[in-house]
UniProtKB/TrEMBL annotation:
<feature type="domain" description="AB hydrolase-1">
    <location>
        <begin position="29"/>
        <end position="137"/>
    </location>
</feature>
<protein>
    <submittedName>
        <fullName>Alpha/beta hydrolase</fullName>
    </submittedName>
</protein>
<keyword id="KW-0378">Hydrolase</keyword>
<dbReference type="InterPro" id="IPR050266">
    <property type="entry name" value="AB_hydrolase_sf"/>
</dbReference>
<dbReference type="Pfam" id="PF00561">
    <property type="entry name" value="Abhydrolase_1"/>
</dbReference>
<dbReference type="InterPro" id="IPR000073">
    <property type="entry name" value="AB_hydrolase_1"/>
</dbReference>
<dbReference type="GO" id="GO:0016787">
    <property type="term" value="F:hydrolase activity"/>
</dbReference>
<dbReference type="InterPro" id="IPR029058">
    <property type="entry name" value="AB_hydrolase_fold"/>
</dbReference>
<dbReference type="GO" id="GO:0016020">
    <property type="term" value="C:membrane"/>
</dbReference>
Amino acid sequence: MKEHWIDVPQGRVYAVSWRPAEPVEGGLPPIVLFHDSLGCVALWRDFPARLSQATGREVVAYDRLGFGRSDPFPGQLSLSFVSDEAKGTFAALREQLALDRFVVFGHSVGGGMAAVTAGLYSDKCDALITEAAQAFVEDRTLAGILDARQAFSELNQRERLQKYHAEKAEWVLSAWIDTWLSEDFRTWNLDSALPRVTCPTLAIHGEHDEYGSTRHPERIAGLTTGPAVTEIIAGCGHVPHRENEACVMSLVKSFLR
């Protein structure tokens, strides 16, 4: 495990890379992880290290600006924050870590960011993996966020968030809830970004995902222009890599192989 600090115009971004004990001979493009709306490197737990060992590839994860150990985000999120990530922080990460070809893997809203990135760098991205990604604003997504807002009104839930985001915790929570519940965000979707994705795509989704129905992976697989596979994990909710890591790992290994 190696730590990195990535310079961006608004500050510094924290990143970590893991290398396999037995890398594939000749090397393989690394996997870059994009975290969810409340996530950070630490909340991936040991998944990146295990993914690196399982695939024989380097795995890179980073805290978006405003999250985890990265510097605070200046102001409020733009409504274009999903597409902005590919053009901003990811571009800096790729340059400063000298990533030529790569695989992108995104969880939840990170899946949308990964999809935009795969399309923007279609000549450099070998594969796209989305997990519990949202492709549009669905009533089920908003209902799940409203339930979460109620849950986070309890002190212990906010303290848990502070454990990972420190003084940025309130901003992190507001950036998620206020942005997604905004009337101006209701028309957001990935429809224009997905057709630019020409690499193979694996869209993973939990059968009981509380933040989105299976219409999301179906739309992702249906609109990308490369070969695409949809995998629905039975009995699983919004965090398949934590709820059924063995299944996710098996799907990813087979797909990348």
